[in-house]
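Subject: sequence -> structure tokens, single chain

Hey, anyone have a minute? Need the predicted structure for the following. Not urgent.
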Amino acid sequence: MKKKVLFVCVHNSARSQMAEAWLNYLCGEQFEAESAGLSPGQLNPLAVQVMREVGIDISHKQPQAVFDCVKSGKLYAFVVTVCDESSAERCPIFAGVTQRLHWGFPDPAALLGTEEEKLAKTREIREMIKVKILEWCQQVGK
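Reply:
Had a minute. Here:
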């Protein structure tokens, strides 16, 4: 049976969406990932673009609220916050045997510079998330 994982960030617009997509793509035989935000926003077009560059389409994803996940009663083996530490502290407690992890990544929405510079930094964030997912799959997915 696949272990359910929920990735949480502030707006569910980039980091958590990329983490969900990477886990389902790289380790989908072991894990089933979802993502949500503390206050859902709009899907970040830079995140959509950089994931499309590696053959993963997240353009159809709709940001959802983490509190809707709590209310739904879904059980997760892992809840992983991918935002900054202070935002992670606002994440609700989930029922059941849930292991909580924090993997802080820079927020693509906060990047400054030209579009090309922001795109380059978003690619770096995408790769940081991918590396973390691969390491974690090897450790936990046994």
